[in-house]
Amino acid sequence: MSPGITNVYITTTPRFSCLVIESIKPLKFFIKKIAARKYEIILNKPLIMAPDTICVFDGLVNTVEVMEKGQRSVISVSLKYTCTLEVKLEGQVPARLIILFDRYFLQDLLKNKVIIIDPGHGGKDFGHRGYINLLEKNVVMDIAKFLKQELMNYGAYAIMTREKDLALNIKERVNTAVLLEAEMFISLHTNWDKDKEVNGAKGIYFGKQGKILCEAILMEIEKKLKLQSLGKKEAENLSQIPQSRYIKQIPYANIKVCTISNPVEEGWLRSPIFKHRLAVAIVNGIANYLSRNKNY
User: Fold this and answer.
1) 223-246: per-residue pLDDT in tens?
2) In the chain, fewer beta carbons within 10 Å around the N or the C end?
3) Beta pairing, strands 52-55 & 38-43
4) Quick one: CA torsion of 37, 43, 46, 48, rounded to 10 degrees?
5) CATH of the domain at 15
6) Residue 244's pLDDT is what?
């Protein structure tokens, strides 16, 4: 088999987004910075794999485009933020060229932030039920655990309002944020509609900052999971509780991550991979919110 590119993929850790380029044997290459947030890796042999566009959206790498120009392979990487990079070479079969894009900005943004994660419903309050009997209270607990781990990976203090299957009222949930002087409150729910064809994610916010946060998270869910946004509206019940003054001072977003009454999206909600990807998208949205006044 002639030498060439056989595989291109991305792996993500809290420290790096790793672009891995595999080939039959080590190839000559050079890296060209096209713009502040775009790089091209140019290799001296053609593709063996098919050209491809990889939609990553891991919070740093947006897309990776794999193409062929003449007898060369070109890998174009589009980034969300500027960053430094490192290069590693592995010479075994397959040979690997690994480009490590530094994700330091996420730790810089999230370190020591106190973020409340509120899995909705619980106990005898099942929340919504899918057509195949998936319960909202269980789904959002799974997503909350993934979200907590993702945030902790970047140094945030992530606290869940409930770790077990128990019911809490809105005052008890918000009081957790008040007692811990939280800087952000993320409530997790699913959408439901009597029309099972309705699909997508929806948001509820409280206050101006909550609206910005809600928009940022919905945008990232749409990009990473291809779930359409069903819009957002302001919460009505929070203004009636004693802690409303405090909760309005921090960004509050209630994210209905997808529509459990849609049979397709209910099926997706049974997948741990899908629920983990939702958690990553929410972290990306939080990072977008926190970075709006910073230059990355």
Assistant:
1) 999 999 999 999 987 877 777 778
2) N
3) unpaired
4) -80
5) 2.60.40.3470
6) 79
Same domain? For 111 and 246 the reply is: yes
What HEC string does the chain produce?
CCCCEEEEEEEECCCEEEEEEEECCCCCEEEEEEECCEEEEEECCCECCCCEEEECCCCCEEEEEEEEECCEEEEEEEECCCCCEEEEEECCCCEEEEEEEECHHHHHHHCCCEEEEEECCECCECCCECCCCCEHHHHHHHHHHHHHHHHHHCCCEEEECCCCCCCCCHHHHHHHHHHCCCCEEEEEEEECCCCCCCCCEEEEEEHHHHHHHHHHHHHHHHHHHCCCEEEEEECCCHHHCCCHHHHCCCCEEEEEEEECCCHHHHHHCCCHHHHHHHHHHHHHHHHHHHHHHCCC
Q: How many domains does the chain have?
A: 2
pLDDT digits (tens, 9 = 90+) for 257-272: 999 999 999 999 999 9
- Mean pLDDT of the residues in the chain: 94
CB distance 23 to 73 below 8 Å: no
Whether the per-residue pLDDT at 101 is higher than 90: the answer is: yes
Residue 24 structural domain: 5-102
d(CA 189, CA 196): 17
Contact 73, 64 (CB under 8 A): no
Q: Are residues 116 and 92 in the same domain?
A: no
Q: At what angle do helices 207-225 and 272-290 cross, to 10 degrees?
A: 140
Is the same domain home to 89 and 139?
A: no
Name the pairing type of β-strands 16-23 and 95-102: antiparallel
**Residues 195, 108: Cα–Cα separation, whole Å:** 43
| Amino acid identity, position 25 | K
Residue 80 tokens, joined: 């969300």
Identify the domain boundary among 60, 81, 102: 102
Residue 64 backbone dihedrals phi, psi, to 5 degrees: -130, 120
